[in-house]
Specification:
- With 67 residues, the protein is mostly helical.
- It is built from 3 helices and no strands.
- 30% of the residues are buried.
C-alpha cells in the first residue's frame, strides 16, 4: 500500500519517520518499503513523498492506492 512504509496496514507517523530517515541517509529503504514510500511513483523517495504522507496523516489529502 502506498504510504504504508512499515507494512502494518496503516499510514501514520511511523511511516513518515521512516521516509525522513531515508531522506537524511540514516536508514535505507528498499524493496516493498521503498515502493510504498515512493508515493508519487517517480522512482525516488524524497521530500515530496514525505509531504504527501504528512498531508494524508493530517487529513488534508488522501493517498490514492493503485488498483
Amino acid at each position: 500500500m502506498k504510504g504504508d512504509v512499515n507494512g502494518d496496514g496503516r499510514i501514520n507517523s511511523l511511516d513518515l519517520m521512516l521516509v525522513k530517515r531515508h531522506i537524511l541517509g540514516l536508514e535505507k529503504l528498499d524493496g516493498e518499503a521503498f515502493n510504498a514510500a515512493d508515493v508519487n511513483g517517480d522512482g525516488k523517495v524524497n521530500s515530496v513523498d514525505a509531504m504527501r504522507i504528512q498531508r494524508h496523516i493530517l487529513g488534508i489529502e488522501t493517498i490514492k492506492q493503485p488498483k
